[in-house]
Give the backbone structure.
Amino acid sequence: MNVKQMSVKQQIRSYVAESLFFSSDDYALDDDMSFLDEGVVDSTGVVELVLFVEENFGIEVDDDEIVPDNFDSVNNLVAYIERKLI
């Protein structure tokens, strides 16, 4: 399955597992796990997430949208991207 065929959630889980969680096992991630509370991302990781979202989903992330409600878990990120794609 190529990236275009993967669901938004699959793409996020794969990216976070490989690039931020440093594991090839995306099943180690809980979709509601807080990236910040669990130490998965720091400020640099947030910037990387923003770039990933913009490049892979073709959306522009405004500075005021970079908040935990949008970027602090797989489920939050999926919801944010889906809202932006509508």
Remarks:
- The longest helix spans residues 43-57.
- The chain has a mean pLDDT of 87.
- Residues 54 and 61 are 7 Å apart (CA to CA).
- The two ends are 24 Å apart (CA to CA).
